């Protein structure tokens, strides 16, 4: 089964730029279905990016982030060929992780 | 003699109107609903039913189920008017569309 | 003598006018195509021809910038991967989609819809996908989203860049009739709001309807199926046609109704020569 995380990390002279797309319903818990019942909250709570044994980025997400969230950021450091590990955990305790090589 | 006739006719008319406004019944509702349904069916054959017609029919049924035949009949009459308008729209548009074609 | 001359001249003028009028109003798909194309290139002289397939992004610079930023990691990525899996997975009888389509189903999107002269109807890609499933004893997909969107996304992707090549066999009057019916559907007003497709996509491309920027009708199907932010997911041509109907307060027809297939035939023919850009993403 394909991972729910797509990631691309590109190392520049001093910083590495990371883009990631995650597949997740990100239900806020405030939306009602066709029958008028509330769709329970089901969204990612934390996302963590690690490389070289260090966490370089942590995101704390909640109901305001939309479905299939996309994130783009840069961090200082990072070398071509290094591993970048991404993990998300959602409010139901489910988790997914993937590792990609920095290009 | 004429004046008395007029008064009697007038009173009779008032009485009819008063009776009509006082109580729509299941029978009068059913008749109005059947007419509306028939018109909407014709609109369906012309492949141009309006969503608002369908909503009015639904509302009419719901009001009738709750025993509110005045409201139900009003909605059924509105549904019939909407359905007839959608039929008229198709009959008109079937002739007018060529004028809109980009030349 | 003078009267005779005047009569002759009047007759000649009349004849001349009638001939001219016949030429101007001769309605053929080819003439329609030219008029349609010229309408958009004249209205938007700065838009490169192939850019029209990008819909609202060809009309609004701000939207375009956001779109380009997103295309690095397009939201249809997941559906595309899923579509490839579905496309390659064998049916219970061992066959695959490749057995139903020319060229094994790869790089053929630009030929759809086509007119089937055995059944005398327009065959769209979505219809063909479900016909393939049914022929092989599988359950057909819901036309609007999910698996249908995923499979058609993959098939569109294998044709990216290829110019639309829709054929209207001139020797088959039923094909021309289907085309003409599609054209009628496009221009005929419907729904309580009394809009036709042309009301938005011919009269007002680049303008806004509420918060949305309207796409030009030229090439409007080239990016299908799309991941639409408004839908929070993928949608097919069937989904777009039915939702456009309900948006003008018209009860949608059934997905892949003959009217919709004829409409797709007309719009796709109008886009001949323009590249397949699907799958796409839209606001």
Key descriptive features of the protein:
heterotrimer; B: 103 residues; mainly alpha; 4 helices; flat; C: 283 residues; Cytochrome Bc1 Complex, Chain D, domain 2; 3-stranded mixed β-sheet; two-stranded antiparallel sheet; 7 strands; 46% helix; 7% strand; globular
Q: What would you note in describing this structure?
A:
The complex is a heterotrimer of chains A (103), B (103) and C (283). Chain A is an all-beta fold and 103 residues long. Helices cover 0% and strands 50% of the residues of chain A. Chain A has one domain: Immunoglobulin-like, CATH 2.60.40. A four-stranded antiparallel β-sheet of chain A has the order 4-3-6-7, with no helix packed on it. In chain A, strands 1-2-5 form a three-stranded antiparallel β-sheet, with no helix packed on it. Chain B contains four helices and no strands. The radius of gyration of chain B is 19 Å and the shape is flat. In chain C, helix 4 crosses helix 6 (146-157) and helix 7 (173-187) packs across helix 10. Chain B: Residues 1-22 form the signal peptide. Chain B: Keywords: Signal. Chain B: This is SoxXA-binding protein SoxK.
The assigned CATH architecture of chain C is Orthogonal Bundle
Distance between the termini of chain B: 71 Å
SSE run of chain B: HHHH
Proportion of residues in helical segments of chain B = over 70%
Give the N-to-C terminal Cα separation of chain C: 73 Å
- What's the number of extended β-strand segments of chain B? 0
Q: Short summary of the structure?
A:
The complex is a heterotrimer of chains A (103), B (103) and C (283). Chain B is mainly α and 103 residues long.
Write the SSE topology:
The complex is a heterotrimer of chains A (103), B (103) and C (283).
Chain A: E1 5-11, E2 15-22, E3 44-51, E4 54-60, E5 70-76, E6 83-90, E7 95-101
Antiparallel strand pairs in A: 1-2, 2-5, 3-4, 3-6, 6-7
Chain B: H1 2-22, H2 26-45, H3 51-65, H4 69-96
Chain C: H1 2-25, H2 29-43, H3 61-71, H4 77-88, E1 114-116, E2 121-123, H5 125-135, H6 146-157, H7 173-187, H8 197-201, E3 208-209, E4 212-213, E5 226-228, E6 233-235, H9 237-247, H10 258-270, E7 280-282
Parallel strand pairs in C: 5-7
Antiparallel strand pairs in C: 1-2, 3-4, 5-6
Helix pairs in contact in C: 4-6, 7-10
């Amino acid at each position: 089964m394909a991972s729910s995380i797509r990631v691309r990390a590109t190392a520049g002279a001093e910083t590495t730029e990371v883009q990631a797309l995650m597949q997740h319903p990100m239900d806020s818990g405030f939306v009602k279905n066709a029958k008028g019942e509330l769709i329970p909250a089901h969204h990612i709570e934390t996302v963590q990016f690690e490389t070289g044994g260090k966490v370089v980025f942590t995101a704390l997400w909640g109901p305001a982030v939309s479905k299939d969230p996309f994130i783009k950021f840069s961090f200082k450091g990072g070398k071509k060929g290094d591993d970048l590990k991404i993990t998300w955990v959602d409010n139901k305790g489910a988790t997914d992780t993937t590792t990609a090589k920095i290009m | 003699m004429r004046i008395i006739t007029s008064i009697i006719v007038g009173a009779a008319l008032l009485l009819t109107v008063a009776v009509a406004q006082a109580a729509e019944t299941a029978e009068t509702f059913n008749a109005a609903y059947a007419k509306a349904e028939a018109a909407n069916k014709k609109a369906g054959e012309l492949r141009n039913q309006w969503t608002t017609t369908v909503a009015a029919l639904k509302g009419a049924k719901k009001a009738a189920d709750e025993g509110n035949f005045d409201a139900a009949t009003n909605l059924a009459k509105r549904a019939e008017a909407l359905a007839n308008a959608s039929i008229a729209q198709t009959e008109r548009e079937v002739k007018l569309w060529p004028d809109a074609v980009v030349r | 003598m003078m009267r005779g001359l005047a009569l002759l001249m009047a007759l000649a003028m009349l004849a001349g006018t009638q001939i001219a009028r016949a030429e101007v109003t001769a309605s053929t798909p080819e003439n329609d195509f030219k008029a349609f194309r010229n309408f958009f290139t004249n209205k938007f002289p700065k838009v490169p021809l192939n850019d029209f397939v990008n819909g609202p992004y060809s009309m609004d610079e701000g939207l375009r910038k956001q779109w380009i930023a997103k295309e690095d990691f397009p939201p249809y990525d997941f559906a595309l991967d899923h579509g490839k899996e579905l496309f390659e997975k064998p049916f219970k009888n061992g066959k695959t989609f490749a057995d139903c389509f020319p060229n094994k189903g790869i790089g053929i999107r630009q030929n759809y819809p086509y007119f089937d002269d055995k059944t005398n109807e327009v065959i769209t890609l979505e219809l063909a996908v479900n016909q393939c499933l049914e022929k092989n004893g599988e359950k057909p997909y819901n036309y609007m989203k999910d698996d249908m969107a995923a499979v058609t996304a993959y098939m569109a992707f294998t044709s990216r860049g290829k110019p639309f090549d829709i054929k209207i066999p001139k020797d088959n009057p039923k094909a021309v009739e289907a085309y003409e019916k599609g054209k009628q559907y496009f221009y005929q007003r419907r729904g309580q709001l009394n809009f036709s497709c042309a009301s938005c996509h011919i009269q007002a491309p680049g303008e806004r309807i509420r918060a949305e920027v309207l796409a030009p009708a030229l090439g409007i199907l080239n990016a299908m199926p799309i991941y639409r932010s408004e839908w929070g997911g993928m949608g097919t041509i069937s989904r777009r046609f039915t939702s456009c109907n309900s948006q003008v307060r018209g009860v949608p027809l059934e997905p892949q109704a003959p009217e919709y297939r004829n409409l797709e035939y007309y719009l796709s023919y109008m886009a001949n020569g323009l590249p397949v850009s699907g799958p796409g993403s839209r606001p």
